[in-house]
Structures are given as structure tokens and as C-alpha cells.
Amino acid sequence: MKNVTKDQIESARRVDLLTYLRLHEPNELVQKSANEYRTKSHSSLVISNGKWYYNRGQFGGVSALDYLMRVRGADFVSAVETVSGYSQSITIPQETARPPPKRAFVLPPTIKYPAKLTAYLQKRGISPAVIGECISAGLIYESVHRGEPVCVFVGRDEQNKPRYATMRGISSDLKRDAAGSDKRFGFLLPASNPESATLAVFESAIDALSAKVMGKSDAYRLSLGGTAPPALFEFLQSRPNIRHISLCLDADAAGQEAAKKIQSQLAADGRFSHIRAVINPPVGAKDYNAMLMNKLAIEREQKIIKRRERC
Fold first, then answer.
1. Mutual angle of helices 128-136 and 115-123, in 10-degree steps
2. Cα radius of gyration (the chain)
3. Which residues pair with 278 in a beta bridge?
4. CA distance 199 to 178
5. HSE on the CB side for 274, CA within 13 Å?
6. Which of 113, 151, 233, 267 has the smallest set of CB atoms within 10 Å of its CB?
7. CA end-to-end distance (rounded Å), the chain
8. Are 147 and 169 in contact (CB under 8 A)?
9. Are 256 and 227 spatial neighbours (Cβ–Cβ below 8 Å)?
10. Which residues share a beta bridge with 246?
11. In what order do the strands lie in the sheet with 198-202?
12. Alpha-carbon distance 90 to 84, whole Å?
């Protein structure tokens, strides 16, 4: 290939994005947590656990080479020259050259009696039956983060092993994923029938729980933990029986734009061409929890009216 050798190409492919930015463009890096970085030029690009994901473009990778071509728009030769050029001119210490060690995922500690969690979820409209079901399945529990009571929502893999946990403050606005969480494994409410062909997708665990309270259909309900789709594609690869997807993302511009992108991605991917994906935003509310709260308020008002009519 013109201008670059095979050795340069192989060398460039081995350089991960975090190493490249640390040594070549350190001013680009913005550290968000012990295990997560962003960049100044692309705020929706997340670097975590040795990988990167560009939320705006809905794609990701590992190498600096892919980043330069797919995000920066460089051609292949220029990208290789950039990476291999900096590698030749700068001696990379062995410790720095290695990808940062992946932090082990450990679930936050459990509070034995989840009274605050139960009260919090009931205040959000989640029924005691659904709460009890999720606690029994190990999908939700109460914990403490830096002295604050939190509700923990757990994502598990096919072997039912916890791989992801997100915390929501019970008495505050805290929102945080547990260190080492793998967002390919989102919070999932299983269908009663494991062979169910229907999946509903939400941004948050609270929205998935809210839809379960309102829903009558036997469907899987998955939270993405945001609008990026890694958890969706991981789920679909392990469940080829899915035929119908309802994209129930928030009704705001960001949620609906993400829903359209996911719908297009599914249609363009041959693995999922058998799936019919429709967009079902919440009706008359920003998200499904707000929709549930509106429904419950109307039901309470109707009960009051009926009582008055009987008097």
C-alpha cells in the first residue's frame, strides 16, 4: 500500500484510543470517572474499559485507527501515518503502552431491609407486586452510595451472572453506573413466556418497570441505560425468536432521534431483517413513568368522583 508498510499498519492497529490520546493529544481527554473518559471535540464519545463508543454516530471500536477514520474522517493511509508516526517519534513506556486494566465489576452492597427502596418505587407508581417480583429475582435492591440510599437496578447475562448495575438516588438526583459495569447487559424484565417474540425497549429501568405495571402483553422489557443500543443488540443476538420490537424511548427530541436511528440500524442489519421495529413514544408525557403517574392520577380522580356520586 502506498506510503505505509505492513509493519506500520500492524503497529497502528495495536494502539488503542486512550493510549493514543494520552500520548498524542492529552488536551483532548476529559476524565469523567476512574474508568471513563470523554473528548473535548466529541462530547458524546465515551472511552471505557479499553473500548470507545460514539453515541452520536451510534458506533464504536477499540483502536485509534478506527477512531481517526470513522470519527475524524481521515483516510486509511493518513490514519496509519498519524498513529505510526507518533509511535516512532515517542518511546512509549511499557506500563503506559498497555491498555488500562479493566476494573472488576462488583455489585454495590445490599441493605437487608429495603424499606426506603419500596417506598421510593411505590411513590413512582410501581406496584408492590412488581417490586416484590424484581427483588426476588435479584433485579433490584437497596444500597448506600457515599452515605446516600440508592436503588440499584441490575443487568445480567445469559448465565444470570450480574454484569451491570446502575444506581438511582432515593432521596436525591444521583444517577451513576457501578464501576466496571458492562452496558451490553441492560436491566431486563423477562417475559412470563421465555419464547415471547416481543421486546419493548426503554431508556431507563424506571420506565421499563412503569410499562410492566401498565402493560397487558407478555413481552420482554429492556432498559438501555440511555439511548445507545449496545444492550439491545447483545440481547437480540442471544434471542433469535424476537420478531417485534417496540422502541419506547422518551418523547423528547433526543429520545425520538435515537429511536429512529435504532430503527434504521435494525432494518439495515441482515441479522435482524426478520424483526419489525416500531416507535412507540409515551402518550401525553415525556417518558413512560410520567405516563404511568398521569394514568394513576386519573384513576384516583375517577374513584373520588364515583364515591361522591354514591353519596
1. 140
2. 23
3. 246
4. 25
5. 10
6. 113
7. 88
8. no
9. no
10. 200, 278
11. 188-189, 220-223, 198-202, 244-247, 276-279
12. 10
Contact 166, 187 (CB under 8 A): yes
Helix, strand, or coil here: 167?
Answer: strand
| pLDDT at residue number 91 | 34
CB 95 within 8 Å of CB 19? no
Q: Which three cell numbers stand for residue 231?
A: 444492550
pLDDT for the residue 102 = 57
Query: What letter represents residue 170's amino acid?
Result: I
Chain centroid to Cα 304, Å, comes to: 40
Q: What pLDDT, on a 0 to 100 scale, did the predictor assign at position 48?
A: 87
Cβ pair 185, 163 in contact under 8 A: yes
Task: Calculate the CA 97 to chain-centre distance.
Answer: 29
For cell 483532548, the residue is 28
One digit per residue, the tens of pLDDT, for the chain of length 311 reads 446 777 778 878 888 898 888 877 888 888 888 778 888 888 788 998 888 998 877 788 888 888 888 888 777 777 887 887 644 433 333 333 344 445 789 999 999 999 999 999 999 999 999 999 999 999 999 999 999 999 999 999 999 999 999 999 999 999 999 988 998 999 999 999 999 999 999 999 999 999 999 987 899 999 999 998 989 999 998 899 999 999 999 999 999 999 999 999 898 888 888 999 999 999 999 999 999 999 999 999 998 988 888 87
- Give residue 69's region: left, alpha or beta (phi > 0; psi -120 to 50): alpha
Amino acid occupying residue 90: I
**Which residues have CB under 8 Å from 142's CB, separation 6+?**
110, 111, 114, 115, 116, 117, 149, 150, 151, 152, 170
Domains of the chain: 6-97 (3.90.580), 115-304 (3.40.1360.10)
Residue type, 156: R
pLDDT at 93: 37
